[in-house]
Design goal:
Elements: E1 5-9, E2 14-15, H1 16-28, E3 32-36, E4 45-52, E5 60-68, E6 83-86, H2 91-95, H3 99-110, E7 115-118, H4 122-128, E8 135-136, H5 143-148, E9 152-153, E10 162-164, E11 167-170, H6 176-187
Parallel strand pairs: 1-3, 1-6, 2-4, 6-7, 7-11, 8-9
Antiparallel strand pairs: 4-5, 10-11
Length: 193
């Protein structure tokens, strides 16, 4: 397996599991993961939020942990990265307003590099204009934005993920096993048991 260099873009109130699990799992299998946030650098922290599904009409939100970043947003050269991970939570609603974030996402899409997006990260994909003609999923409340951006909406269970070429999407963290497995597949990562 060749080690991939992966960029993970986060922000304050990123969903706790949606940043922690991919960050750790991708490193566990040997990949190098740089986590960044606009306006922050290595050693800085982002707040996380825990979104849970407890029978209400939408998810609940509780305070999460602090996640320590390991790279500087302003120093990132996206050409050096093989793939992109976009976690969900509340961060995507304001990250999609950052033109540099959108430029980064466009680079990965235009170069046909693997992109993994979960939950509300679909908001960033829609704002970047990279889903037209693509089939994808996200947290159901993001469906109107994705459809409005020209995506073909895929309704699936919270535990399922969807891949269209090198774009791998999932509705929320309960889909991690399938989402990460599909992402590893498009990365070309082979795990031998």
């Amino acid at each position: 397996m060749s080690v991939k260099k992966i960029l993970l873009i986060a922000g304050d109130y990123v969903e706790d599991y949606e940043i922690m699990v991919p960050f750790q799992a991708l490193q566990m299998v040997g990949h190098k993961v740089h986590t960044v946030c606009p306006g922050k650098g290595p050693g800085d922290k982002v707040h996380t939020a825990i979104h849970d599904f407890e029978g209400a009409q939408t998810y609940s939100e509780k305070p999460g942990h602090y996640f320590t970043l390991n790279a500087a947003f302003d120093e990132i050269d996206v050409r050096e990265y093989d793939a992109l991970v976009l976690p969900g939570g509340r961060a995507p609603e304001y990250l999609r307003l950052n033109e540099r974030v959108l430029e980064m996402v466009r680079h990965f899409a235009q170069e046909d590099k693997p992109i993994a997006a979960v939950c509300h990260a679909g908001q960033i994909l829609a704002a970047a204009g990279v889903v037209k003609g693509k089939s994808c999923t996200a947290y159901p409340a993001v469906a109107p934005e994705l459809k409005g951006a020209g995506a073909r909406w895929v309704a699936c269970a919270m535990t399922q993920a969807h891949a269209d070429g090198k774009l791998v999407t999932a509705p929320a963290w309960p889909a991690h096993p399938e989402w990460l497995a599909k992402f590893l597949e498009v990365l070309g990562t082979k795990i031998v048991a």
